[in-house]
Amino acid sequence: MSMAGNLRKVTALGAVDGLRRVARLTRRNRRVDLSHPARSPLGSSVVNCVAYRDGVRIPEGSDLVETVRRIRKRDDGFVWLGLHEPTDVEFAGIAELFDLHPLAVEDAVEAHQRPKLEWYGDTLFAVFKTVCYVEHTELTANSEVVNTGEIMVFVGPDFVISVRHGRHGSLGPLREELESDPKQLSKGPAAVLHAIADHVVDEFVSVTDSVQADIDHVEADVFAENGARADAGRIYQLKRELLELKRAVIPLARPVQELTTRPTGVIAPEIQAYFRDVSDHLLRVTEQIAAFDELLNSILQAHLAQVTVAQNEDMRKITAWAAVIAVPTMVCGVYGMNFDNMPELHWRFGYPIVISAISVGCLILYRGFRRNGWL
């Protein structure tokens, strides 16, 4: 039976009995971390469920019920439960076990939330928008540049529950990195929250650097010799993708600022200092996005100006050729009126002289337009 199926039994069996059942079943079935693509999927929403004491993972063979009881009694550790796109049924038992607020549970299951930070008693609920850069060989008007997801985090005195939505933003490598630094992990659930926030913001930095490369490429195409022929759809597509990035980054500034300044029992003052570093990185990304937005507006205006100039040049060429063609048209029109008494009509040299006059007139006009840059 999968870990998700084990946790679903918590609501049916009661908190204590259900937890005992989870302990027995987890000892039988070794946990598999879905965050690593090379490992076999569980077929459920549970990614991992691990207990830590003094920054060290408690051996998987230990009694989970007694571990949680000791954690809650002695306040010497915490549990980190990771889930991926859980359903209402799968999350119901977890919500009852950890006494999670129904509004926060609804947000965690439904997703599509703005980055925010909320307090429900002793539990902190944070929402982060995750982003990843979509690799592409050539940027087109339909290319997907930025893909977004979400990570919801419940932080309590003795637990961390991370709920991930989307196919990216894996926390597996982050968990391993934290486990390699027991000193930091021993600072409790707040250290995990900081690591997640730092991980999300670092991804922002990576994505903005990749987006900048796309913007530089488009800018080079626009200001190339044939820049007027560049595809404006690519510029609009970049602006749309930049808007997705902006929706993930800009609203996060206020929650991170609250984590650095708002006193709370969940976040220790020593951890708040780490959040100030996250805030600095986030500010850098915010400034980059604002600069990208202005730069794309300038590139788009420059492209439209080039298109207008190219159209004016085309119109000047058309007008110049029309003026050149008007000379033979006028002369032929006059001699095409079929009057009997017209000058030079029956003269032997009339035709060659008219042709010569037309050629000279056209040549004079052509040279004049050419000299003025119209042709």
Describe what this molecule looks like in 3D.
- With 375 residues, the protein is of the alpha+beta class.
- Helix content is 58%, strand content 14%.
- The chain contains 12 helices and 7 strands.
- The chain has helices at residues 3-13, 15-28, 64-74, 88-97, 102-110, 172-179, 182-185, 189-222, 232-249, 253-261, 269-335, 350-371; strands at residues 46-53, 56-57, 77-84, 116-120, 123-133, 146-156, 159-165.
- It has a 7-stranded mixed sheet with strand order 2-1-3-7-6-5-4, with helices on both faces.
- Helix 1 runs antiparallel to helix 2 and helix 8 runs parallel beside helix 11 (269-335).
- It is rod-shaped.
On the 0-100 scale, what is the average pLDDT?
79
How large is the share of residues in beta strands? 5-15%
Q: Report strand order across the widest sheet.
A: 2-1-3-7-6-5-4
Largest sheet: 7 strands, mixed
Low-confidence spans: pLDDT under 50, at least 5 residues? 1-43
Number of strands: 7
Rg measurement, Å: 35 Å
- Tell me the overall shape: rod-shaped
Helix content range: 55-70%
What is the number of helices? Answer: 12
Overall structural class, as computed from helix and strand content, comes to alpha+beta
- Taking the alpha carbons of the first and last residues, their distance comes to 80 Å
Task: Write down the secondary-structure element order.
Answer: HHEEHEHHEEEEHHHHHHH
Features:
single chain; 375 residues; alpha+beta; seven-stranded mixed β-sheet; 58% helix; rod-shaped; disordered N terminus
Quick gist of this model?
With 375 residues, this protein is an alpha+beta fold. The chain contains twelve helices and seven strands. The chain starts with a helix and ends with a helix.
